[in-house]
Amino acid sequence: MNDLLPFLPGQLDQVFDGITYFMPEIYLSVLFLVVLVTDLLFDKTSGWLCRIIACAGLALVIFKDLEQFRLLLTGPHFFFDQMLLLHQTSLVFKLVIDALSILLLLYFEWDDDLNSHPRGLSDLYSISIAAIFAMHLMTMSVNLLSVYLSVEMVSIASYLMVAYRAGGLSSEAGLKYVLFGAASSAIMLYGISLLYGFGGSLDLFGGNLLPGLMRVNPIAVSFALILFLAGIGFKLSFVPMHFWVPDIYQGAPAPVSAFLSTVTKIAAFGLLINFLTPFIYFPKFPMVFDFSLFLSIIGILTMIVGNFAATLQNNIKRMLAYSSIGHTGFALMALVTFTAQGKSALTFYLIAYALANTGAWMLASYFANTAKAENISDLKGLGFKYPVAGVCFVILLISLTGLPVTAGFYGKFLAFSSVYAAYQQNHNIGLLLLMITGAVTTVVSLFYYISIPLNLFLRKTERTTGFASSNPFLLLSVAIISLLIVFLGLFPDILVK
Amino acid sequence: MNILSLLIFTPLLFGLLIILLPSAWRASFKYIALLATLVQLGISIWMYLHFKTGTAYAGVNNEGQFQFVQKLPWINLDLGTLGKMQIDYFIGIDGLSITLVLMSSVVMVIAALACWEIKSNLKGFFSLFLLLNAAVIGVFCALDFFLFYIFYELMLLPLYFLIGMWGGARREYAAIKFFLYTLFGSVFMLLVMIGLYLSVKDPATGNHTFNIVQMMNPANYDANSVFSVLGHQTLLGMPARTVGFVVLFIAFAIKVPVVPLHTWLPDAHVEAPTPVSIILAGILLKIGGYGIIRVCLGIFPEVAASGAFWLGLLGVISILYGALNALAQRDLKRMIAYSSVSHMGFVLLGIASLTAEGISGAVMQMVSHGFLATMLFFLAGVVYNRVHDRDIYNFRGLGTAMPRYTTFVMIAFFASLGLPGFSAFIGEAFSLVGAFESPSVNGALPYWMAVCGSAGILLSAAYFLWTLQRMFFGSLSLKGGDVWKTALVDLNFREIITLLPLALLTLALGVMPSLVFDKINDSVLALVEFTKHIIR
């Protein structure tokens, strides 16, 4: 103990120094406690209160996020003993995650299926706040230990969320998710332990890990890296780690699926960027393991598998699940370039995707609430009965397909541009193939996305009974999202600034 | 307010009005739509009359010579290492577009008059109709590739719903087929567009630009960029500029449509309601032709010149294949659809000749076909609305039952088959003159293509005259018997005032082709001169 004494002041200074960079996360952890206590104090009826507190708290967190831009004027900053790194991309990702989370937390109650849960939703709010906290960590982790901890924290929260509404498909989905998730994090941990063994360090930016890895047999290193990427791939749901997605998105309540397919994915991309950065900028590492090639192949496979499988689906949730796999592939395309432009294209693409996707899940809830429509064919003729919802659905799906005038188009356009620019520099054939696959799968994706407007508007139904009403705010927020999507399609520069 | 922007956004404003009005007023929607198209027609006539001609206003590759220009910065992104992304709201017209804009406005009025047959879900129909209208005019006016692309894609969704919701029995199939075909062409166009954007720099600002006019100048290309004229880069082992040209050409050829990419057209035309058929045949096909002239020929002239043989070949195949198919059809609308394929083949043949006569003929043929296809589809709609049948063999001797109708049918048929005195004659004749001249001037096309093209005129005479004989001559005999006889009343006032201007226009253009040629001549000469210059 006495030996450590000289180090303590330095350590403490570091911690205190780090706290200024950790303010949003501190607010989040306090928020988690407050929501939890509220839930305990007010018992079952506390759902609405927890919801208000959670959303207001998140608004405060966003405010704190915005304040952090000031800290970044001097460049990226390591803190907590090189465990975390605050940089421009991570901060933007945090902001996006928080803003979307408010929308998603509001959405929880609007889904009748989830809202009819006898235990109430108050627990769900505290779980999601914990998940958001862990996602913040994911976007900032630069040490394999913090990487693993944050991923695991998100996973555990997600398991609870998926299985929240026990009974029926939800329990099954929850169990499946736990089993697959546990297996994949075990694989990831194995990869991390191998990397630690080879490199002698857990610190990605520390300067010891990579030279260490260079000295080891490349095949062994590649093996370790692939194990690690398999863990992240599970969160990102890229091929071949995508198999769990359709079952779990279908079984989980729609808002939870929306949560998993948007914010979790964004956080996982943030983590992937952190992990890849040192490898990309380390000279000669591509000789050992070519991330660019590896991710190009994964991206192409993911686009093809996700989009083609989606054409075969009849269940709305399954279709959205496969389509989100396809979008992962497309987003990987923007990431593969590793340029600044590629990163901003990725960010824009993810925002556009997350917004439209959230809206689409909301509409899936809306039509489940009002007309008990689970399958695409159940939507037959409903566009005339619910014109606003129908038109919004068309706009959102058009954005997901990537046609003008929507944010989705601009996201696709930016992604293509960044890949093209990279191609012009290095004439890498893989990039060209990525673009061609991206273009072809866009046409394929139209085929399944359009099947919803097709049923909504082109077909007629004789059905006149069995309609219920839905929460009006659900429709309102979908309408706002749709307008936002069109607005961003017309004036995208507002967001990019 | 720029007059061209007004032209583009007038229908959008009226469309918004229709959306906001309560559904109880649905009876007024068609009048609002008609008013919107009439306002548009007024604006384009004004523009036509004030359009300045002369070599100083040729346009094409000279930005300063475009007229009614509006250029506003639209999307400006700082992309760090890649400089700034410069997307302008840049519209303007030259001789190549002015006649097409006027023709489109006329066709839109006719289409609006044909909307009287639509009975269900009027609010949806008219708002989509007006959105389509704005997008179509926007395509002809846009000079920024990004803007062009936005308008180009914006047409798809309204058309999908217009065909899919108000179409015939196989409307779902026709609508999705049309959508997938066109999107397939346009996503790859997007890739080429981005490639061009990253290759071209605006000399004034040093930023990459989407400006189509700047893309025409080889000096604006970065030396080591993918589409650089002198760089001779390759894509997948093929010359990059050839790949770019082919991709763009396929995108537009799907629209034209060029055989073998035409299979969506008969389905879409047959299933679409009359007003949509009119817009499809009258305007959308011209967007393909216009795109080939403005974009393919303008940006890749040297590839177009070296590939002129293949373009001409595709044109000739379209002419003959379309005509032979038209001969074999029983369905009146399908017959007309295939005749469109055949007639648009002349446009491609004229363009491929790369001569002033050929390109003028191509533009003339587009204008003429715009009016004639409109008239033909409207006439087919007249019979279909009355008895819900279009089979040529189910009618005989209509000449005695519907004399006024028969008169207009004869005018439309004779004009379409290229009778001298009507516009199609001028268009086809000039295209063929260009094709005949080409071997001696630039060697782009061999003689036999021009000869085969002429054979197409003969075939078109065959199918039109044969149809006329089958349906209208002889004694009256109908499949539906007396029910049909009472249903088949002659043209009413609305239909006559719709058809009369079209008939007069096609006659006027046949007698005074200078109405079109005077406006386009300078631009066509500039285009030909410019392509020659680049090729050398």
Shape call of chain A: globular
- Helix/sheet category of chain A: mainly alpha
**Sequence of strands across the biggest β-sheet of chain B:** 1-2-3
What proportion of the residues of chain A form beta strands (DSSP E)?
under 5%
Give the overall shape of chain B. globular
Over all CA atoms, what is the radius of gyration of chain B?
23 Å
Description of the molecule:
The complex is a heterodimer of chains A (497) and B (536). By secondary structure, chain A is mainly α. Chain A has a domain at 290-497. Chain A is built from 23 helices and two strands. Chain A has helices at residues 8-21, 23-42, 47-68, 88-110, 112-115, 122-140, 144-162, 169-199, 209-214, 218-236, 245-251, 254-281, 285-288, 291-311, 316-336, 340-371, 382-385, 387-401, 407-426, 429-449, 451-458, 472-490, 493-496; strands at residues 77-79, 84-86. A two-stranded antiparallel ribbon of chain A has the order 1-2. In chain A, a hairpin with a 4-residue loop joins strand 1 (77-79) and strand 2 (84-86). In chain A, helix 18 packs antiparallel against helix 21 and helix 18 (387-401) packs across helix 22. The longest helix of chain A is centred in the last third of the chain and has 32 residues, at 340-371. The model of chain A has no long low-confidence stretch (mean pLDDT 90). Chain B is mainly α and 536 residues long. Chain B has one domain. Chain B has 22 helices and five strands. Chain B has helices spanning 3-20, 26-49, 95-114, 122-141, 145-154, 156-166, 171-199, 212-215, 240-255, 264-271, 274-299, 301-306, 308-328, 332-353, 356-387, 398-401, 403-416, 423-441, 447-472, 481-487, 493-511, 514-535; strands at residues 67-78, 84-93, 208-209, 234-235, 238-239. In chain B, the strands form two sheets. A three-stranded mixed β-sheet of chain B has the order 1-2-3. Chain B has a two-stranded antiparallel ribbon with strand order 4-5. In chain B, helix 11 (274-299) packs antiparallel against helix 15. Chain B is globular and about 75 Å long. The two termini of chain B are 42 Å apart. At the A-B interface, helix 16, helix 19, helix 20 and helix 21 of A face strand 1, helix 5, helix 6 and helix 7 of B.
